[in-house]
UniProtKB/TrEMBL annotation:
Residues covered by region (Disordered): 305-358, 569-626
Pfam families, alphabetized: HSP70
Keywords: ATP-binding, Nucleotide-binding
Protein known as: Heat shock 70 kDa protein 4L
Gene3D superfamilies the UniProt entry points to: 1.20.1270.10, 3.30.420.40, Actin, Chain A, domain 4, Substrate Binding Domain Of DNAk, Chain A, domain 1
Highest taxon in the source lineage: Eukaryota
Signal peptide: none
Chain intervals with Polar residues compositional bias: 318-349, 579-595
Similarity field: Belongs to the heat shock protein 70 family.
């Protein structure tokens, strides 16, 4: 895709239509109510928003439409009306500027209206009826609205991403843009030397001459991306400045692109040396000096082949290819070996050659350093900004932790105060309750006073102080709530083990495989842990709820687990295999011996049925033999 022409007006757009409506309604509003001064910032934003809505509504409706803004200024309401025809008349000069842009675009592209296939309108403000009319009058066709701005950008981004991604294979698609703002390079003049030398226009190399100090490297509408080269004569380190040529065409007044320092301070030449600069502008219109090279020309003697009859050097005189010679002085040949007879015939007919030394010119290129100083941030500045950003992120993290700690203190104050007057009241003595409530009230006053903006560790310490007073009360309530369930589970486990002992005492065969030592161990466990539980509960039951518990729920659970870890393996001991099961198990050796005995004496089989069948088989065999 090639861009033929590009024209723009950086100070013309949909905002100008909104401002025309705003200026009209604001002036009429001030004249109607005789207001002095301009509208406030808030009123200006509100009126601009309503003007934008009115502009969009007039695009779809040609009748007179109202605009209303309540309490715009000094409790006064704005109420007005406008037609589309009045709006077009109000913006007539803007339409002329649009028409000039379209006409200029055709002139720059050197196209006629019949050469244009279609006109696509992308963007909201370009689709208002008055702009469509201007497009139709200039291009002699209606503008199309098949794409909107979001779709155009999204499709372009998706297509460019597919081109850049190695995971997709797309057809070659090249975009040739144009340089909208011409770029020149400027450098200081050296006394006693020419600044530039004449070079031919080859591969984008510029033709320069004389003592020009400014060179236009990328003129207006030059195709991009592209690279251009220039050769200068300099004595040493020099500085170039790239800038935009036309200041009036820029959207801002900053014409300097950057400064480029070429070479090292140690490189000083007695005579002017050729320095080649390669300048490039990419697809995005970004200028850069990509390469700087010092050109070194020198002469070198090389061996060349000449004829004895005609002492003229074979090959072009300006050839820069070196010829390699063998140790005996004859020229080495890179051709494949040929027949000896053919070689003798050629030697007899062709003239004899010899090698001579001749000077030839060679060129070397040495890369020079380039120091860039432009409007973008340097690497050092970017690192500093990254460090500042990391510090800000860390500060935000610390602030969040501080706020969370403060909120935790405030939450604990409200929650504990509510619980002390509710479910936690039976588990706190009057003195504890009064002391804790007083501490909570003082903490609340402190939070909204001196402790409003303190460091995080202060709130952590304050929360720890509150918990040291409130957690014992919460612990008593939790113990009182969970203790009955833990005791009930303990008693259930004791009952299960006692049932096993009763079954053993009744002589049931389920546990007849247990030894007397195992049974005694089960009885000891029952007595030991049942006694421990009864003693603990006898001490705990008389105690008031406001005192700390004698036995904790965790102790009851741990004792139950210890008892079950000893008793359950004994109860679940598997029975040993019975004798009948052992006799029914087949023995390979006995089977083999039985088979050998059956061969010698078939009547000695333990199974009567088998003996009978084998005896019948023997009778049948005897009958066949008879």
């Amino acid at each position: 895709m090639k861009v033929l022409a590009t024209t723009c007006d950086a100070f013309l757009g949909g905002r100008d239509f909104d401002e025309r409506l705003f200026n009209k309604f604001a002036s009429e509003f001030q004249q109607q109510y005789k207001l002095k001064g301009s509208l406030s910032s808030k009123a200006t934003i509100r009126l601009l928003q309503e003007c934008e809505k009115l502009k969009k509504s007039m695009s779809a409706n040609s009748s007179e439409l109202p605009i209303n803004v309540e309490s715009l200024a000094e409790d006064r309401d704005l109420a007005n009306k406008m037609k589309r025809t009045d709006f077009e008349e109000l913006c007539s000069d803007l339409l002329q500027r649009f028409q000039m842009l379209f006409t200029k675009c055709l002139d720059v592209a050197k196209l006629k209206t019949e050469d244009v296939h279609s006109v696509e309108l992308i963007g909201g403000s370009s689709r208002i009826p008055m702009i469509k009319n201007v497009v139709a009058s200039v291009f002699k066709q209606e503008g199309k609205t098949s794409l909107n701005a979001d779709e155009a950008v999204a499709r372009g981004c998706a297509f460019q991403a597919a081109i850049c991604s190695p995971a997709f294979k797309v057809k070659d698609f090249t975009v040739i843009e144009q340089c909208l703002y011409p770029i020149i390079i400027q450098f200081d003049q050296e006394e006693g030397s020419e600044q530039c030398m004449q070079t031919e226009e080859i591969d984008g190399t510029l033709t320069t001459q004389g003592k020009n100090m400014c060179i236009e490297v990328f003129p207006f509408l030059h195709p991009i991306p592209s690279s251009r080269q220039i050769v200068l004569l300099r004595h040493g380190v020099f500085t170039l400045e790239a800038r935009y040529a036309n200041k009036d065409s820029l959207p801002n007044q900053n014409i300097v692109i950057g400064t480029f320092r070429i070479g090292d301070a140690s490189q000083v030449f007695t005579e002017p040396r050729k320095i080649k600069l390669k300048m490039r502008m990419n697809t995005h219109g970004i200028f850069n000096i990509s390469q700087a090279q010092l050109i070194e020309e020198y002469e070198k003697e090389v061996e060349v082949s000449v004829s004895e009859d005609n002492p003229v050097v074979d090959g072009p005189p300006n050839s820069k290819q070196e010829v390699t010679t063998a140790s005996n002085g004859d020229t080495e040949s890179q051709n494949p070996p040929v027949d000896s007879n053919q070689t003798n015939m050629q030697d007899s007919t062709s003239p004899k050659k010899k090698t001579v030394m001749k000077k030839k010119k060679f060129t070397k290129y040495h890369d020079l350093s380039i120091e860039v100083s432009n409007m973008q941030f340097t690497t050092k500045q970017l690192n500093e900004f990254c460090e500042i950003g990391a510090n800000l992120i860390q500060q935000d993290k610390l602030e969040r932790e501080r706020v969370n700690s403060k909120n935790a203190v405030e939450e604990y104050v409200y929650e504990m105060r509510s619980k002390l007057q509710g479910p936690l009241n039976p588990f706190a003595s009057p003195a504890e309750s009064e002391s804790l409530l007083q501490l909570l009230d003082m903490t609340e006053e402190w939070l909204y006073g001196d402790g409003e903006s303190l460091k995080r560790h202060v709130y952590v310490e304050k929360l720890a102080e509150l918990r040291s007073k409130g957690d014992p009360i919460v612990h008593r309530a939790n113990e009182h709530l969970n203790r009955p369930l833990a005791v009930d589970n303990f008693n259930r486990s004791l009952v299960r083990i006692r049932k096993v002992l009763d079954s053993i005492a009744a002589g049931e065969p389920t546990y007849d495989h247990l030894t007397q030592a195992q049974v005694n161990q089960l009885e000891d466990m029952i007595v030991q842990y049942e006694t421990w539980l009864n003693q603990q509960m006898m001490q705990q039951n008389p105690r008031p709820q406001t005192s700390d518990p004698v036995v904790k729920v965790t102790d009851i659970v741990s004792q139950q687990q210890a008892m079950e870890s000893v008793c359950h393996p004994i109860i679940n001991t598997p029975k040993p295999p019975t004798a009948s099961h052992t006799n029914n198990t087949p023995d390979l050796n006995s089977q083999n011996s039985g088979q050998s005995n059956d061969v010698n004496n078939p009547n000695t089989n333990s199974n009567p049925g088998t003996n009978h069948s084998k005896k019948g088989a023997d009778d049948e065999q005897n009958m066949d033999l008879d």
